[in-house]
Amino acid sequence: MKSLQERLSDLSCSSPTSFQNLSVVSLTPTAPSKADLDYFLVEDGISQGTVRITELGAGGSVPELRLENLAALPVLLVDGEELLGAKQNRVVNLTILVPARSTITIPVSCVEAGRWHMASPDFHVARHLVYAQGRAERHCQVSRSMRASGSHSSDQAAVWRNIAAKAHRLGIRSATQAHSELFERNAAPIDGYVRAFNWQSGQTGAAFFIAGQLIGMDVFDHAEVMRRFFHKLVRSYALDALDCSMPASAQASEQAVANFLARISQAQSFSDQAIGLGKDIRFSGPGISGGALWALGRYIHVCAFARSGEDCEASTLGTRFSRPSHRRLS
Description:
Layout: H1 4-8, E1 11-13, E2 17-19, E3 22-29, E4 40-41, H2 42-48, E5 51-55, E6 64-69, E7 75-77, E8 81-85, E9 90-92, E10 96-98, E11 102-110, E12 123-129, H3 132-149, H4 156-170, H5 179-185, H6 187-196, E13 205-210, E14 213-220, H7 223-242, H8 254-266, E15 268-273, E16 279-285, E17 288-295, E18 298-306, E19 319-320
Parallel strand pairs: 4-7
Antiparallel strand pairs: 1-3, 2-3, 3-13, 5-6, 6-11, 7-10, 8-9, 8-12, 9-11, 13-14, 14-18, 15-16, 15-19, 16-17, 17-18
Helix pairs in contact: 6-7
């Protein structure tokens, strides 16, 4: 198994591109992506009728959903993707590669506290990921849950509080306290950010800065997957940028990204069997936390977030991030 340090050392950084208080640094591998994808994205499976996501049984379960993959290839769900419909909107708790021709239960968090009635039998995928600050907090909650009990659950009450606080700061009232309405009510300014940034040929990742501070990063195994997720990620960070009134205290730079990647390589980590295919890796260290999915002989997705204050894992992780432990969590 290749170390994450080896994977990240293969990336080269572009000069920052900026619009208002948001800056993006593109990440491109020195070696090109595989010619063809050997999995597909969940929104494509839903549109083609080969994937169906529904409530877990007639009564439903807030932290779980049922996913049926009828296709001959695995299907990818990415940490932070929002699923709209059914009894309430949910967000995917971690990146999952669902095996071909299988049915599994996926862990999710509710992002619509005021609804528990059927809007549609199935879910569809939003055009955004959860805003970055909320995504980072939930990611840490799931890491702590994995460490403590081996589950993949979030702190649901904290997720709702985070969304409510964001809505209050943005002056948005939602009848069902829906996370998706934060994006709908800010569609015009968010679209301004989307028009300002473009995916670059060969790009497989991106690092995002708000007011000059590096906030987070996502890297995929294939340029086409990054192309599909690029504007979803821009929307995610744009909502946080709209919520930021702090003046820039630094400048976005390639060096800041290089320092961030170095902190990932030095972080402490643990790993466990993933839901679906592969290994789920979690890492945390001074000023950083994140995770990765290793499957099909490579890192399918890596995400990392800048942290302030106490580390995500509160120094409970046991190994340096060279080659992750394969032990089960207890």
